[in-house]
Design goal:
The protein is α/β, with parallel strands linked by helices and 187 residues long. 32% of the residues lie in helices and 15% in strands. It has a single domain, classed as Uracil-DNA glycosylase-like domain (Uracil-DNA Glycosylase, subunit E, 3-Layer(aba) Sandwich). Keywords: DNA damage, DNA repair, Glycosidase, Hydrolase.
Length: 187
């Protein structure tokens, strides 16, 4: 369901995208696997991760130094040669993450664990404190590196870059992502 950069889903496209899934952007031995909560309706309609205008994932990647320029969602495959990938805790699209159940998060955490053990990224970066707490049963987790690992994969929890996350400005998001990049030696 790839569309051009100029594609803007209609209200009918967005409504039809409810409960869709989009493909993970995965390869073995990535440097960082970014993990969103779940795809939004724009992502479901376009087939691209973090596609909604106003989502700050792509500007945050650029400002934090993970990408050499600002990528568009339809350029997501260009992350793989940089050693970066994207997945989600829960696969199905929703208008809001609040539509997900605690059981979906727990089931998603188990499926995510299996993907991480199979693909072996150096770091799993979960983009959402609440999602990580619920999916992995860690209610006291804070943003930053975690003491536990998944196999040989380190875990970081980062703020969610959704425009709905008003607790973090774009600069504050970029600072948190930059800490991950610098701590893991990502050039």
């Amino acid at each position: 369901m790839a569309h051009s950069a100029a594609y803007r889903p209609t209200p009918a496209d967005l409504a039809a995208a409810q409960d869709r899934t989009i493909s993970d952007l995965l390869a073995p031995d990535l440097r960082v696997l970014f993990c969103g909560i779940n795809p939004g309706l724009w992502s479901g309609a376009t087939g691209h991760h973090f596609a909604r205008p106003g989502n700050r994932f792509w500007p945050t990647l650029f400002r934090s130094g993970f990408t050499p320029r600002l990528f568009r969602p339809d350029e997501e495959r260009e992350l793989l040669p940089l050693g970066l990938g994207i997945t989600n805790v829960v696969a199905r699209t929703t208008a809001k993450a609040s539509e997900l159940t605690a059981q979906e998060y727990r089931d998603g955490g188990q499926a995510l664990t299996e993907r991480v053990l199979h693909y072996r990224p150096r770091v799993l970066a979960v983009l959402g404190l609440g999602a990580y707490r619920t999916a992995f049963g860690r209610p006291k987790t804070v943003v930053g590196p975690q003491s536990e690992t998944l196999g040989d994969t380190d875990i970081w929890v980062l703020p969610n870059p959704s425009g709905l996350n008003a607790h973090y400005t774009l600069d504050a998001l970029a600072d948190e992502f930059r800490k991950l990049r610098e701590t893991t030696g990502f050039e």
